[in-house]
Amino acid sequence: PKEDSIQNDFRSLSNAQISDLSPELRLALRKAKRYQLILEEVNSTNASPWFRQFKVDIHDDPLKASYKFRKFLNLSLTEQRSWRPDDAFNNFQQKVESIGIYIFKLKLPMAEVRAFCLTGSFPIIVLNTDDSKHGRIFSLFHEVCHILFNENNVFKDLESGKLNKKYSEVENFCNQFSASLLVPDESFAFDLVNYNLIKNSISDSDIQRLSKNYNVSNEVIARKFLFMDLISEDYFWSRKRIWDAAAKAAKEKQNEALKENEAGINQGIKIIYEKGRPYVANVVNAYHQGLISSAD
Length: 296
Fold this sequence. Notes:
Elements lengths: L1 H8 L5 H5 L3 H20 L19 H12 L3 H6 L5 H10 L4 E5 L8 E4 L5 E5 L4 H17 L3 E3 L9 H18 L2 H10 L9 H11 L3 H10 L5 H28 L6 H9 L1 H12 L8
Parallel strand pairs: 1-3
Antiparallel strand pairs: 2-3, 2-4
Helix pairs in contact: 4-8, 6-7, 7-8, 8-11, 10-11, 11-12, 13-14
């Protein structure tokens, strides 16, 4: 029954892929399901979450859909560019939470998965704590796109040639949706002219400059260039491997520093970081209303 649950939740995965899931990922999937069940138990409102007012379809243009969704989120480019880099992820997270999507952060095997989502009355997105903050931003909106499609997803972030055709279409749509939401096409087109960026002449410094302008990762900017056929797939994936390795090294160093100071971490702050304010608020409200006990 446990395996059937995973198969039912993630129909994009074959039986062979499910049998290959690591124990760590299986545990994370079960935790996520538990969090979702708790939300169903403690939530006292029958109101439909706001995100259900926005729909996407595989026949839509992902660039136009992302433009409309930015308006839906009330997210202006001026606001996005005004954020301090360290605040960007938290601000994006708050925008998504404001429309009724819950966000959790768990340690996931990075080589296996970057993020995943579960749809339903209380949809949730699980992001990888081993990913960088900027890496999580792209994954966040990739998973939002899957929720707008109303389908569960495990984001493996593989090269398109390694995906089956049907799954590849949806993944490519969500990748373009996320990249264009974070870096709007009209603004990016202006940058191409302003910085005289042409095919096969894009440098690492060009990518880094634009990533700082938009408060996103190098990868997001590189994906924009890839979608516009300004860089090759080989170039994109070769740079991505370098950026992923650098992010992994930086994250490991950060984790070591956190271990040394673990005793001083405020547990309340840690819980809010891992489970998000909306989830914590729902559970606390349910406790005060007598819907759950301290034992729960």
